[in-house]
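Example protein was shown:

_____
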Amino acid sequence: MNGLWIVLIFLAVCCVYAVSVYNGFILLRNRVNEAWSDIEVQMKRRYDLIPNLVETVKGYAKHESGTLEKVIQARNMAMASQGNIKELAQSENVLTGALKSIFALTENYPDLKANANFMELQRELRDTEDKIQAARRFYNGNVLAFNTKIELFPSNIVAAVFHFEKRDFFELAEGEQDARNAVKVQF
């Protein structure tokens, strides 16, 4: 009879542990999803600001249409990226580079540099870029915690049973690690 109680207690402890680990995975997965949602909100804000910025620049830099078209193409490519985080990160990196080229144009157009509307749009985009970076860090931190728990023993057993899969990090491309690097643009 004592052996039966020991087995029952052991099984109860295993069940409580499995439920606890499972709930921990659900909590981490929801945090990762919430963090990704924050990134999407900031990217949408950025996408909405870009056409206004391009229209403002068009009035001053009419012969820079190639640069402006690249920005719009990069924006459209980023907006079309769905699902795969690596592809989205890649298109976001292209968009960031295209935006840097627009800001570099201000050096050649003093009237544009002094335009209040352009300056406000530039400030809003910088603010949005900062928020995207913060959201990326938050997302990547949650992904790290989630992926680590999936790999650690014995929680990896629960992860395998319930099909929890590792998530991709939202990483910057090489050379984009510091968004405040000086941009070198030649015309």
